[in-house]
Fold this sequence. Notes:
Layout lengths: L13 H13 L3 E5 L6 H16 L2 E6 L3 H17 L5 E3 L3 H4 L9 H13 L4 H6 E2 L1 E2 L1 H11 L5 H11 L3 H9 L4 E5 H5 L1 H11 L6 E5 L5 H8 L2 E4 H13 L3 H17 L8 E3 L2 H12 L3 H16 L8 H11 L7 E8 L1 E8 L3 H10 L2 E6 L5 H7 L7 E5 L9 E6 L11 H17 L4 E5 L2 H8 L10 E4 L6 H14 L5 E6 L3 H4 L10 E5 L8 H14 L2 H18 L10 E6 L6 H4 L8 E3 L3 H8 L2
Parallel strand pairs: 1-12, 1-13, 2-6, 2-7, 3-6, 7-12, 14-19, 14-20, 15-17, 15-18, 16-17, 18-19
Antiparallel strand pairs: 4-5, 8-11, 9-10, 10-11
Amino acid sequence: MADIFPFERVRSGQRELMGDVESILLNRENLIAHAPTGIGKTVAVLAHTLNYALKKNKTVFFLTPKHTQHTIVIDTLSRIKKKHGVDIVAVDIVGKQWTCPHQVRNLSSREFNQFCRKLKRDERCTYYNNVRAGKLSQKAAKLVNEIKKNPSHSEDISRLCEKHRMCPYEICTEVGKDANIIVCDYFHIFSPGVRKAFLSKLNKRLNNSLLIVDEAHNLPERVRTLLSKNLTEKQIIRAIKEALFLSEHESADDLRDMQAILKELGDDIENKGERLVSRDEFISLVEDKLGLGYEDIVDGLRGLGERVLDLPNRHKSYSASIARFMSSWLGGDLGYVRILSRDKFLRLSYRCLDPGLSSSELFDKSGSSILMSGTLLPQDMYLDILGLNSNKTRLREYISPFPPENRLSIIVPGVTTKYSKRSDYMFSRYASLISQIALVVPGNMAVFFPAYHLMDSVLSSLEDGVGGKRILVERRNMSKQERVELHNRLANLADDGGGLLLGVQAGSMSEGMDYANNLLDAVVIVGLPLKTPNLEVKSLIDYYDFRFERGWDYGYIYPAMNRALQAAGRCIRTETDKGVIVFMDERFKWRNYAKCFPQELELIVSETPGKYISRFYG
């Protein structure tokens, strides 16, 4: 086992994971690890990977999709350093914009980067100047050396920098130059443009780096989003205002023509409608309508955008955004789809279907990569769509350390949220089953639906106070503070009959919230969160059918099952927890869906779940 494992006892499943990590590092391979909550995957993977990196003088990049997950990694590194006294330099880096002392939260990431470059170029950023006055200042060097002594959270580094009026991002990247491990976000490495600048600033090379990707079930969708671009009618309207403000009347006319082109393309599209647009169709319309070459038009808009950004206190340019979209539109067709849709405003999208277009090269160039999550099934899907080399990648599913007697898992057939079966009867049937379960669950329970409108349909048949439980409801667009308050209300009800939380799968309460200390005694998954089969989803299915002959599985069914299992995982968080998970939809029995369940999940199929739950809780 690893020389720097910080705990006395190695858990069940953890030993096997650590052995696989050791092996793939020695053989320069990759690992796709389905590691259920409770195994302790973060420390298991970190101990071996960091130990190997220290011996071989390599850099570990620990990548997460959310800032909150950085905390676990930094705390684990602190524990390793405290127990073993090992000489670790670690740094926690979040997006530059989120630590910037200026008021920049309303800017897009690209707009912020333009704003930042402009301030530095004009030597108007005090925070940056205090770090670098041509070279690293003595005060900054002193602060960097102080931070290197112990792993620190980005918030703590920001507070230190605020005290000394220094730029947190510049300080963090300076620490990163000597770091053995860098905790950062997906986009730092998986966004091609950001990666190049990020690694250059840190003086790091990808081929001398080891990648750990946490919550890797999120990765395909995140990479697709990073590689996608949009143009909206709203952007064009605002760009026209920019042109008029600068008395660029010709540019304003060109932008009006572009708005007319979107309307012409969308003539036969009703609200919520959409259509495919070919690459050449849009280019031809632009050139014919504006009477200029396509790339000349892009250059003109780019120049207009630069003039806008040169204005005092102006950090955003819609003209520049349009120029970037038009430039990206010249990209290839394979692995992408081009769609025009209408929802109040028209939107033209160049959507990525294939995350492997970016990630495959990344995984090939890095030393070894470890992708891990508690819901990383079926594993061959992630191998295929992320473009990992099958000859150099191991697929491993580890067994949960939870005592089987502490968990009850039930599939309830006879109900479904399938579109053709939705009815008032079906919604009242769901309400009746939820009520029966609430009567026998001793404390809190959560019910997660595929969508808000389905939740509302069932809610209308539920009575507040059923089983002595107060109903709490997640609503659309809740702020972070509102979600925390909802969580706290649930916690306060735990010893007072319990609460009945209603939310949605893939929502903030089902993925972004931790229910520690066995806060939930039961989780009910109502139906499958299958995406609306719009043009993008259909194109994704067709593309994966063409690439892997697994279109419906990879593009439709498996992602929905992943979201359902993520929500189900809110119930049991540690090996001492006890809880019930109920899957309410007959499709959970079907072979294509059932293969997504972890192998240790012993599922009972019953239309009367209440009797099993009553027996489970004695």
